Amino acid sequence: MQQILSSWFVKGMIKATYDMWLKGWDERNGGNVSLRLLESDVISFQNDFYEKPRHVSLTQDVTKLANQYFIVTGSGKYFRNVILDPADTLAIVKIDEQGKGYYIMWGLINGGLPTSELAAHLQSHIVRIEQSQGKDRVIMHCHATNLIALTYVLELDTAVITRWLWEMSTECLVVFPDGVGVVPWMVPGKDEIGYATAKQMAKHSLVLWAFHGVFGTGPTLDEAFGLIDTAEKSAEVLVKVLSMGGKRQTITSEEFKLLAERFGVTPLEDAIKQ
Length: 274
Description:
Layout: H1 8-22, E1 32-37, H2 39-42, E2 54-57, E3 69-73, H3 86-89, E4 90-95, E5 101-107, H4 118-131, E6 138-142, H5 145-150, H6 158-168, H7 172-175, E7 180-183, H8 191-201, E8 206-209, E9 213-218, H9 221-243, H10 253-263, H11 269-272
Parallel strand pairs: 7-8
Antiparallel strand pairs: 1-3, 1-6, 2-5, 3-4, 4-5, 6-9, 8-9
Helix pairs in contact: 4-8, 6-9
């Protein structure tokens, strides 16, 4: 057995993808995850890398990620099967020196490519490295049911959606004080949606794709998962509240300010003013 299968990052991807499937967020081959790896993470497992790794060109410039390693989910792979065959459903890629493509160093043993949303992942990684001083290493995309539902009935506006989600669960302002960015519907898998997502990721740790899904980021797989899970729970509460005729009382702006002061966070100003 390859030693790399026992690495913390392969085990972490197995757990994250299976947890996401159990949540109902990743039907069929829906969703994708990428985790930025350090040289120190992979150095002990390089004997498991391909002797002649396949090179794949990119249609965008990712020079800022040159020589960086990522473990990513594969295109067309079912999250429910990652636990059964990680070597088929996952890949470790290394961005080339020019930032014009990448090498498949491990995984995808039956062929194929990394996630079709790789453009969105790489552009988001670039901005999150800058915004978090290198702490954020995970980009996670899924089809969280209630968050998607809300994009059909709420105004597609960052301040509006953020405020509604904050009001449905007290912890939300603390977990994502920077709010939820919103990207209008766009064709998935293209460079344009990658750039639009990265623009929102520069300001928000959560980004909603209207009528499609959500992107979350964080330093670890657990933190990115927990971020999405918290927002999705709040969205579920909101769906129930709306189905019962709407809210009769809620958390006020002044109370949100007290909450922010208590936990030492700076909430999105536009959402506080809603």
